[in-house]
Design goal:
260 residues; alpha+beta; 60s Ribosomal Protein L30, Chain: A; 2 domains; five-stranded mixed β-sheet; 7 helices; globular
């Protein structure tokens, strides 16, 4: 397996230029099926065999592994049978995965899931799964991220973070982007309130959802049609690498919601 050497590619001895990031797709995972050990599938793909014949991790401390929700859901058995030609069956499945339906328009439902996510059709996905099936969101994406991280840290001996990503729309904006639905070892939100901007002005309201930004960056090398289920992001601010969860930091409390 060829793994890009981000240090060499940058052309700077000792690592990337200050402030630079690298995003490297993870190949060689193959089809994931219910019951598969994700860490056991990913660990070999995160190693490279040197000229001495010894395999060693190419990931480093501080790297972030972004993994698509689809492979997590498949490994956890969150795949259900469905008649995709039956709109009533699809609607019933969406409602069963929701705690509240916020809007309806034809076959599209905007719902709130048990996780607190507000998204189309409860995040249920019919793409990149076998015909006649649908992928549901993981029951607890934060827990999924923690388990994968713990297993990979143990197997690789590298202190990396993990993000479970999924594709969501955004209110009042066209198009979709990947966001973090589960995290482990990386901040969800970085609070910049009280710090100064480049002009010396004190920031009063700026909180950056860095986990979503990293998930979106990783998706650029994964895509929807490349069979690349993960990417490694390198070069993040080390202060972002800490214990956190999507449920605690990213999902907005309903009391702070002006629209529901």
């Amino acid at each position: 397996m060829h793994v890009p050497d981000t240090t060499a590619d940058a052309g700077v001895p000792g690592g990337l230029p200050a402030g630079a990031l690298s995003v490297v797709p993870v190949h060689g995972i193959g089809e994931v099926r219910p019951g598969d050990d994700l860490a056991g599938l990913f660990a070999p793909a995160l190693r490279v065999t040197g000229r001495d014949g010894v395999a060693a991790p190419w990931v480093r401390d501080g790297d972030v592994l972004v993994v698509t929700q689809k492979v997590v859901s498949k490994s956890e058995g969150r795949i259900v049978l469905i008649d995709t030609d039956d709109p009533d069956a699809k609607r019933a499945l969406v409602e069963s995965e929701s705690v509240r339906v916020l809007r309806r328009r034809g076959d599209l439902l905007i719902t709130e899931t048990r996780h607190g996510f507000v998204c189309a059709n409860a995040g249920i996905d019919l793409s990149n799964v076998e015909a006649g099936t649908a992928a549901l969101l993981p029951v607890d994406p934060d827990r999924s991220a923690r388990r994968l991280r713990e297993a990979l840290v143990h197997q690789l001996g590298v202190d990396l973070a993990v993000i479970v990503s999924d594709t969501f729309g955004r209110t009042w904006r066209n198009g979709v982007t990947d966001v973090a639905i589960g995290i482990a070892g990386i901040a969800g939100v970085v609070d910049l309130r009280g710090t100064k901007d480049a002009t010396g002005r004190v920031l009063e309201a700026t909180e950056v959802c860095v986990a979503d930004e990293v998930a979106a960056a990783a998706e650029l090398v994964m895509g929807k049609d490349k069979s690349v289920p993960a990417a490694v992001v390198r070069g993040l601010d080390p202060s972002w690498l800490r214990r956190a969860s999507v449920s605690d930091e990213i999902v907005r409390d309903p009391t702070g919601d002006l629209f529901r």
